[in-house]
Amino acid sequence: MSKLNNLVSGGAGAIDPVSVAEYVQTGGFDALKKAAAMTGEAIIAEVKKAKLLGRGGAAYPAGNKWEHLLHIPETPKYIVCNADEGEPGTFKDRLIMDKLPLKLIEGIVIAGFTFRAQAGYIYVRGEYRKIQKRLLAAIENARSAGFLGGNILGTGFDFDIHVISGAGAYVCGENSALLNSTEGKVGRPRIKPPHLAEVGLFLKPTLVNNVESLASIPAIIGMGGDEFLNIGHPDSGGTKLICLSGHVQNRGVFEIPLGKVTLRDIIFDSDLGGGIAGGKKLKFFHLGGQSGPIGGPDLLDTVYSYTDLKKAGLSVGSGVVVVMDETVSVIEYLQCVSEFFVHESCGKCIPCREGNRQLLKLLRRLSVPNAAGCGDLETLRRLIRTMSDASFCGLGQTAAAALNSAWKHFKAEIEAHIRNDHEPV
Ligand SMILES: Cc1cc2nc3c(=O)[nH]c(=O)nc-3n(C[C@H](O)[C@H](O)[C@H](O)COP(=O)(O)O)c2cc1C
Ligand code: SF4
């Protein structure tokens, strides 16, 4: 039996992405028509039943976020779609925007309708130039067909979507930095609270959701929250688009039902990764992005669900699965991760700005046999704790997650580089 699913990605590549007529022929905009006859409360009840966890990385329950915003009386409200997709190894939102932009638009309009929002914004990664053009074409066509703009479907609801281009900063994927950047300010995170549902875009109540989260909304409204839940795991309904890269035979975006597939299936099943390329052995996999944890072959039988991965010390994150074979040095890999965070730290707070630099310095020393001593390991540990406890935003708080987890799985390999000048700490 195939371990794949096409709940969200169905139709990708089979229809002209910007043709409203072809999208409608495949059932497109049926969910919007259904939602137009529902109250905001009824729509949110379905999203809650579906147990949709945010697909951008933080796995926050979408239903709770939507309910919170619904109960805020202040208007206008805004819908913001996070299409920054800056996490290295993540390329699944690109698939949706490239091949199924009308599905994303449908999800955003349903969200807009739920809150009677003023407007929607899609904040797109700066490097996705062609995709920005595709979104604009799809928006134009949806507007001409009456699914966007004034008096949508004769309901009296006016709503339009704007496309905003990012400029290549990873931190602008953090939702409050993204709002600052959308407003034309420097893309640095805001202090929270206040929650963005209360003080968001232009200081007004705002919903921020990831592309995949919003593209899942038509399926939830179309089939109902209960059926969506059944497709996935009892704690988190539906499917997940995963991005397989590294030393697997088959790389790309794959859609799998949550809770029904193991990491072994993902890496070795012929419908998915197809095994390690060149007949080599698996050394480790890195899940959820640069800010996610690393796991070894002993965790291959872990089920791919938010709950099971968390229990195993792993995470779904944005859906990244980077696979590394036996030839890769863990320390060299961690240095690459660390270089990324040094480059992307926005510099606003000291634990992240200086912590990441010190972390990289120590990792470089560790990569030279016998250059680092036991004292360096202790410094490394204190640094990791300070960064995760005291950094201002998620970037600094999770920058050492890979190192922390690699330490558990590859302790011997890391310790082999250390000069034995003290009692081990
Ligand atoms: C440094 C950093 C970068 C992030 N980058 C992204 C991103 O590129 N795309 C995304 O959807 N979420 C990203 N997030 C998570 C967002 O802050 C936020 O949780 C998400 O947009 C909420 O949508 P969701 O609940 O639908 O996942 C990032 C978070 C941090 C701390
Ligand atoms: S944790 Fe890093 S990215 Fe976040 S505010 Fe501090 S310096 Fe900027």
Q: Tell me the distance between the termini.
A: 49 Å
Strand content: 5-15%
Rg, nearest Å: 22 Å
Kindly state the percentage of residues in helix. 40-55%
Low-confidence stretches: none
**Main pleated sheet:** 5 strands, mixed
**On the 0-100 scale, what is the average pLDDT?**
96
Strand order of the largest sheet: 6-5-9-7-8
Q: Could you name the CATH homologous superfamily of the largest domain?
A: NADH-ubiquinone oxidoreductase 51kDa subunit
Number of domains: 3
Query: Given the structure, what is the number of helices?
Result: 19
Assigned CATH architecture of the largest domain? 3-Layer(aba) Sandwich
Q: Helix/strand-derived class? A: alpha/beta
Q: Class of the largest domain in CATH?
A: Alpha Beta
Bound molecules: flavin mononucleotide, iron/sulfur cluster
Record field, number of beta strands:
9
| Secondary-structure element pattern, one letter each | HHHHEHHEHEHEHHHEEHEEHEHHHHHH
Broad shape:
globular
CATH fold-type name of the largest domain = Rossmann fold
Describe this protein's structure.
The chain is an alpha/beta fold and 425 residues long. It folds into 3 domains: 211 residues, Rossmann fold (3-Layer(aba) Sandwich), CATH 3.40.50; 94 residues, Roll (Ubiquitin-like (UB roll)); 86 residues, de novo design (two linked rop proteins), CATH 1.20.1440. Helix content is 42%, strand content 12%. It is built from 19 helices and 9 strands. Strands 6-5-9-7-8 form a 5-stranded mixed β-sheet. A hairpin with a 6-residue loop joins strand 7 and strand 8. Helix 2 crosses helix 10, helix 3 runs antiparallel to helix 4 and helix 14 packs antiparallel against helix 15. The longest helix is centred in the last third of the chain and has 18 residues. It is globular. The termini are far apart. The model has no long low-confidence stretch (mean pLDDT 96). The structure holds flavin mononucleotide and iron/sulfur cluster (SF4). The site of iron/sulfur cluster has 14 residues, from helix 15 and helix 17.
